[in-house]
Amino acid sequence: MTQRLEVETALRAAAPHALVDALRDVLTTAYHATAVRLLLTDYGGTVLRSCDGSGHGEDSLSVFGSPEGRALGSQEPREQQVAHGDAVEHHLPVTVRGDRIGILTVRLPDEGSTPEVVDELRYVADLLGREILVAERDTDVYQRARRVSRLTLAAEMQWQLLPARAYRDARFALGAQLEPAYAVHGDNFDWSVDADELTFSVTNGMGEGIEASLLTNLAVNALRNARRAGVGLADQAALADQAVHDHYRGAAHVSTLLLRIELATGRVEAIDAGSPQMWRMRGKSVERIDLDAQLPLGMFEESHYTPQEFTLVPGDRLIFVSDGVYETLSPRGEKYAEQALSRAIHATSLLPAAMVPREILRDVADYRAAESLDDALVLCLDWIGDGHC
């Protein structure tokens, strides 16, 4: 307990950019660590990037096949014996409420690598993740370290608008991913959860580049503003529609799928205002959930929206995809949604929600006929419902 307190005190006293340095110092003293390294998941979710105090770490590891990547995927610590030495490297997931931030690697002498110490280090990794989220308000070090290449300005705006890429509690689990991660412009997802309900949206602003990103920013912030005012789902859509129309006068619109889930019952209100699609896997059955098509946000003045209702049952998995996924064409001209999407949903059925979007997007990339991938978004929701993981 004294060692935990030392770590907490050191991290909270550290400058935002110096968390890794402070952690290295305290772990050296408290646990006799001989090396400490932080690896952060990149924007594409395929690479782990070394993070030092400058944010210019150049070392990268694939999440596929490396011990660190396996620890990230399993969300369990992994041990690796150091070659030609009496030391063990412990690869520990750095995760906050389901959001997989990266891996903390701590090298310890063999005699110091006890199960009790590993449990202590898991606590340290969790604490580090939360401190990173706080520190990111005040430094660019961690965001800079995540970048394999430079983000376009439109992508920068989109990533700053997003919530975490994953979330999990006793009632549900969420995961989402955008591609191309370093050049996305119009697609977006958003969510918010409180004691009684989960509200989230999948949006796709028309156009390309900065214009699409600006349009999506306006729509998402208008939806947030309405949601935080405490109004119902229909009014959230109507107020966001009004905000977009007032600015663009019908010259631009935002396709949106908006949902509100009552956490106690699984009852869903949904508004389909555009192109994002919703698919459901229940047991081994996969089907598209067709909703009444309503007008995209901003297309006409004072549009009215009517929620539809359905109910989730424990074990349901919902998959939300943008047109950059389901409209993708194979070399033979077949749309991805015709057969391949259902196969991909089946193939990823055993993966946690946080990993599903990345795997489906990898499948889309292999499927497509074009050399580059259009804006593409996948969001996965697992409904647990009864409060048991």
UniProtKB/TrEMBL annotation:
Assigned EC number: 3.1.3.16
EC category name: hydrolase
InterPro entries: Bact_Sigma-Reg, PPM-type-like_dom_sf, PPM-type_phosphatase-like_dom
Superkingdom: Bacteria
Gene3D superfamilies according to UniProt: PPM-type phosphatase domain
Protein name from the UniProt record: PP2C family protein-serine/threonine phosphatase
Listed GO MF terms: protein serine/threonine phosphatase activity
Domain PPM-type phosphatase, first and last residues per copy: 169-383
Taxonomic classification: Bacteria, Bacillati, Actinomycetota, Actinomycetes, Kitasatosporales
Keywords noted in UniProt: Hydrolase
Ribosomal protein in keyword set: no
Region entry Disordered, spans: 58-77
Pfam family name, one: SpoIIE
